[in-house]
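Notes on consecutive records. When two proteins share a document, each keeps its own sequence and its own C-alpha cell line. Never mix them. Below: protein one.
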Amino acid sequence: MKRVLVLGAYGLIGAEVTRHLLAQGHDVTCLGRSSRAALKAFPDVPWVIRDMTEMCAEQDWHDVLADMDAVVNCAGALQDGPRDHLQAVHVDAISALARVAAARNIQIVQISAAGVSDTASTAFFRTKAAGDQALLGSGGPVVILRPGLVLAPQSYGGTALIRQLAAFPLVQPLALKATPIQTVSVKDVALGVQHALAGRLPDRSVLDLVEPEAHSLAKVVAAHRHWLGVAPARLTIAAPRWALGGIGKLADALGRLGWRSPLRTTAIEVLKDGVRGDPDPYRALIGDVTPLHKTLAGFESSGLHVLKARLAWFVPLGIAILSLFWMLSGVVGIISVGAAAEVLTRVGWPMWMAKLSVLFWAAVDLALGAAILYRPWVQKALLGMFLTCAIYLISASVVTPGLWLDPLGPLVKILPIMLVIALMSPLLEDR
C-alpha cells in the first residue's frame, strides 16, 4: 500500500481513481482548487486546496509531496478560459512536479489522452504532449496512460453532450456521425492506475487505454440511447459540417463568460479528428479494456439519467430567456417611465417619487439580466431575481392590490417566473 497524492480528485476520472485507491487500502491525499467541491466529493479524505495554475515552480511542490510515494495526475482542462490555462496546468505545473518527484524518486502516473501529439490541431493535445514529454524527460519513475473517450456513470463535458443527444425524443440531432470513437470505462482507467502503482506496467511506458474496435459517433450515441431506454429515433437531423465553426465560436465566446460548453472549438476539432488509440501494447500487458456495450451494460440506468440529459437542454435556453426577460423589463421600464409611474400616482405617490422608483427597479432588472450571463455570478443573480420578484409581488399587493385583477395579469405572471428561477438554481450547481 502506498501514500498517493491524486491531482484533480473531484473530476470525472479523478473521483473514480480516488474511490478505487481508497478501496484498495492506499493512503490517499487529494488536491483540488475548490474546497466546496472537494468536501462534497470526499469529506473524509485529507485535501490540499491549491490551484495548479499557481504551482509552476519547484518550491510549490516541496511541501505537497512530503511523505508521498506516488502521484496520480488526473487534472486537466479542455481549453483556455477565465479559470483554465492549458500551458500552466498541462506543462508548467507538471514540469515542476516532475523535477521534484524525480529528485525524491516519487512515482508519477499521468492520465493523458489518446491522440496527443506535439503537432496536433488543438492546444489541448499539444500541451498534453508537452507535459508527457516533461515527465518522461525528468528521469523519475513515470507511467503515462492515454484513455480514449471516458465513459462513467456520471457525465461531464463530451459524455454529457452524448447523453443529451441520445435522450432527445423522437428525432436524433447529430453531427460528424462517421467520426471514429474508441471508448474506455472510467473503471478501466482506475484499474490501469492500480496496475501502474503495483509495478505491472513498465516504467516510462506510454499506453493507450482504448477498446479494441472503433465505433462511429452515430453508433456511440445509438448505444447510449439504448442504454437510457429511449426509443430509436424516427428521424436523424444532421447538422451541416460548416455550421460547427459558428457553434464553436459562440461556445468560445460563452467560455469567456465562464461557461464550459462541450461544444467549444477544441471539442469540435477533437471530434473531427476522431478519438483513437492503439490497444495492442496495453492488451499485451494486461488484456483488453471493456468494450462500449459492456461498459454501458455495467452502468445502472434509470429515469433520472434521461431526465438529467433532457433538462440539460433547458439550461442554456433558460439562461437566455431569463436574461432577455429581465433586460427587456428594464428597458421597457426606462422607455415607459411615465406610464409606469402613473400606476403609483393613482394611489397617492408624488410623480417624482414614482418615476424614481420605476427607474431604480428598471436598473435592478438590467443589472440582473446582465449578471446571469456571467457564470461565476449566476447563482447570486438567480437569488437576486427571486428576491426581486418577491419584493414586486409583496409591495404591489400592498400598494396596488388591484393589479391582481388586471386582465394582463402582471402579478399572476410573476409566480411561474419565480418557479423557473427556483428550478434553474439546482440545475446550475457545479459538479
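Protein two starts on the next line and is unrelated to protein one.
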Amino acid sequence: MNDGDELAFTDLHAFKRDILYAIRALERDEPPKGLTVKRVLEDDYSTGINHSRLYQNLGQLVDAGLLEKGQKDERTNEYETTDATRRMLETWTKRRVREAGLDEPALSSGGEQA
C-alpha cells in the first residue's frame, strides 16, 4: 500500500488487474455482471476461471474501493470501475505502451519501424 489506504496498481495480483481491465472494457456498454466478466477472462485463461475465485476477487476489489457493486435484479450484481480506478488503468496502460515503444509515430500511422 501507499499513501494511506490507497492501493497502487502494482499492489494488485495479475488476476485482479485482469478483472479491472475486463470490467473497464465491458462497462462502456453497461455495467457488466460477474458471469460476463468470467466469460471475457476465460479467453485469456486456458485453465478456465473458478467461479468462487472470481467472486472472491470481485468482492475484494469492491472492498478496496476499486470497483462499485450495484444490483441489476434480485439475483444479479453489476460491477463498475471507480473514477480513481479508471485513472489508474489509463496511467498504467500509457506507461506500458511508452515503455514497449508502441506509441512511436511510425507504429500509430501504420508504418513499420526499421
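For the record: The CA atoms of residues 38 and 50 lie 9 Å apart.
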